[in-house]
Write a structure and sequence with these properties.
Layout: H1 2-23, H2 27-34, H3 48-52, H4 54-93, H5 101-117
Helix pairs in contact: 1-4
Length: 135
Amino acid sequence: MVSIFLWFLVFGCKFTESNFFLMQFFSYPIQVMVGMKIQECTDRFFGKALCTNQAAFTLAIMYVMDLILFFLDTFLWFIIWNTIFSIFRSFMLGLSIWTPWKDIYARMPKRIYAKLLASQDVEIKYKPKVGVFLA
């Protein structure tokens, strides 16, 4: 449920931002450049091919750049909301976000054993030998 809510927030922010910032200013150049005809231009190396296709080439670059920004922005919104959810989850679990990573990793083998191996249904045959060596 939390994952669905996370992606709902990510795509909600994406829709809002894409609508107001990316697409709003992108429609007018498309209207102008689609009907553009460039005439009487020649280049020394490319001839008329570059000049006549300049509008289409520029539109293609704009589309590709918009698509790249769309995906990079989706990743950015995911990182932002995932950070907010992680901080909220840490406080719900009673952990501080300022807990050193060294302490978290030092307790991890015992927590794995407690969560996965030491359940009510499984007979405890093995006593965990946990050795964590920190430099």
